[in-house]
Amino acid sequence: MLKIGVLASGRGSNFQSILDRIESGFIKAEIAILITDKPDAYAIERAKNHGIESLVMQPRDFDGKNLYYGAIASELKKRGVGLVVLAGFMRVVGKGLIDSYPNKIMNIHPALLPSFPGLHGQRDAVDYGVKVSGCTVHFVDEGVDTGPIIAQAAVPCHDDDTEDTLSARILKKEHEIYPLAIKLFSEGMISLDGRTVRLKCSKPDGTLMNPAEG
Ligand code: GRF
Fold first, then answer.
1. Which atom of ligand 1 is nearest to the CA of 16?
2. CATH no., domain 1-102
3. Ligand 1 pocket: which of 7, 14, 93, 137 to mutate (most atoms within 8 A of CB)
4. Mutation test residue for ligand 1: of 171, 173, 175, 176, the one with most atoms within 8 Å of CB
5. Cβ neighbours around 198 below 10 Å, total
6. Options 3.30.750.200, 1.20.120.450, 2.60.120.20, 3.40.50.170; which CATH number does 108-214 get?
7. What is the pLDDT averaged over residues 69-73?
8. Is 109 among the residues known to form the active site?
């Protein structure tokens, strides 16, 4: 069974949505470890509640970014992790980890990439005045939110939206498409053609299912 390593920095609601979907049997995988860069991350409580090992690893305890991400990679490898899931991990992941898990690290971003990458996807969408935004699950490469797109879901943006109201609407969709993308990965349904992700799951009429459709 696929072993997943989760990296999170904060409240961990995406982590929770994945835990719940594993416990319900929707995703057939196991979370082997939570690694966090913040000792006070609420995600640690969530791990405890589900009997999952957690480790705090902070960059300041390592001599540079390469050694930090190399150490994370070796903790993951030690536990047989086959998929790394970034769930609100607020750092740009370094080569030391990416090279150990090529196209095996996923992230969720709260905007429809390639629009509004970076730390403030929801605020940037509100400020820009877009009518539609959403969230994107993608593989992680060395850029900031630039890797191959696995799944996207859209939500409307209203005239009176604030960063908070839009974030809440997007978050609900995050909790749907992230577990779905992980399920597809765990079942070997995802392959890459250049930077295009192909989903090997078809509808009865032979067309490909869009994971955002559930
Ligand atoms: C989410 O909005 C996610 O898209 C972004 O960071 C936030 C994490 O939230 N990458 P949570 O910790 O999963 O609740």
1. 13
2. 3.40.50.170
3. 14
4. 171
5. 11
6. 3.40.50.170
7. 98
8. yes
What is the average pLDDT across 78-96? 97
Output the residue whose Cα is nearest ligand 1's atom 10. Answer: 88
pTM of whole model > 0.70? Answer: yes
In the predicted model, is pLDDT for residue 203 greater than 90? no
Q: Which residue has the higher pLDDT, 115 or 208?
A: 115
pLDDT at 204 over 90: no
Helix axes 163-186, 13-23, angle to 10 degrees: 40
